[in-house]
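Incident review: delayed structure delivery

Summary: a single-chain prediction request sat in the queue longer than the usual turnaround. Root cause was a stuck worker, restarted by the on-call engineer. No data loss occurred. The affected request and its eventual output are reproduced below so the record is complete for anyone auditing the incident later.

Affected input:
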Amino acid sequence: MRGKDYKHFEDPNFQEKLVSLCKRRGFVFPSADHYGGLSGSFDYGPVGTQMKKNIKDLWWKTFITSRPDCMGVETPILTKPEVLQASGHIDNFQDPMVECKDCHHRFRADHIQQFVESSKNPKDRLAFPCPKGNSECHGNNLTEIKQFNLLFQTHVGPTAHEGDPSSITYLRPETAQGIFQVFPKVTQFSGQRLPFGLGQMGKSFRNEISPRDFLFRMREFEQLELEYFCEPQEAEQWYQYWINECLSFCNKVGISPDHLKLQHTDSADLAHYSKATCDIQFLFPQGWGELLGIANRGDYDLRVHAEHSKKDFYYKNPDNPEAEKFYPYVIEPSLGLDRLFYATLVSCYHEEKLEDETRVVLKLSEDISPFKFAIFPISKKDPLIDMSMDIWKKCLPYTTMDYGVAGSIGKRYRKQDEIGTKYCITVDFASLEDNAVTVRERDSMKQIRLPITSLVDHIALNKPFDFTTK
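Output delivered after worker restart:
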């Protein structure tokens, strides 16, 4: 099976392989697993942390710093109840929940329906069974559906443990509401004219009933969100524009277009704030699921915050004194970083049959791979280590570079293939004589010999390597 033909959705063991790779190579693994773990929580290791940072940097550059019409903000995680009351989260941010009366596990009701529809057991289609399937569970013995609010409530201040209702606050369920709170101030001091966007990266929290499917559904996750403010009559145009921009960003990250599709939400199923919503769905190992969402939020958020706070959330064109003030419409491209991280690993995972082994390689984009280069001394002899470290120091200002001495060169190559490192540089005994090194390319495994001065020049100037020559 060549890597380019690998289809994860045809491999029943793919999820297990991917999770194993993530643990083995330090991408991501369950949090607090020495104490039994915490459902819906994960730790990112050094490699995964660097890859997440690279994705965030690429998003920030693409959506914020490379555009004259977008700016970044940062707002707190702790959110006043009044903000979430106005936004509708306290009343509407709910999922349907059922409980198995036998084992007392609780589940999202719509996930039960998905389980029934996907099950190959004919008996499951006759009733709603407990997905746990424990021996004490007896068929359709679930409670009636009730609504479960997903907000994380906490308390602040010295009266937090005295039952003081004024101490109640919430961990934000999305970064968007913080952006809407700073909108009036930004319009005052920035002088920005419509259309313009405010973007934010940061942690959000949702008390999911049943976290599941690795990084797909978590209780603590990172969001990358842009709120793009525009004239109401231009909203449809910008809505379509941002759908296309999000698809383009997926391509930049390295996600295969073959694993993406658009899902437009029916009007009857729209969220309370939305006039139109389009999900960019990805073919995860467990099936199609939302990767990014683009919503036309209309003027809902600015209007309700103005009504509840009695403050001015209007926009008025500063270039036209006669212009009437109004609430701009908002187009929101929103994505979960952890879910995008997961989808990228899935899309870039390849297996290749070699003569005596199966090579696993992550064909990550150079923009997001944890390391673009790795350098190896072929042995632990001091002259080779000294030369390798000297090259590492010269190149480090221009790129990300790993360094390794453990194991054979073949094993070091395989490790870097699984991490997604694009180029491996080997310093051998001949390097001490000719001041040259071997550069090996990840995908083709082709190698070239290059003088050290040329190597540093290529890296410093981001010049491509020519692997057509020996």
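Verification: The longest helix spans residues 46-65.
Action items: add queue-age alerting; document worker restart procedure.
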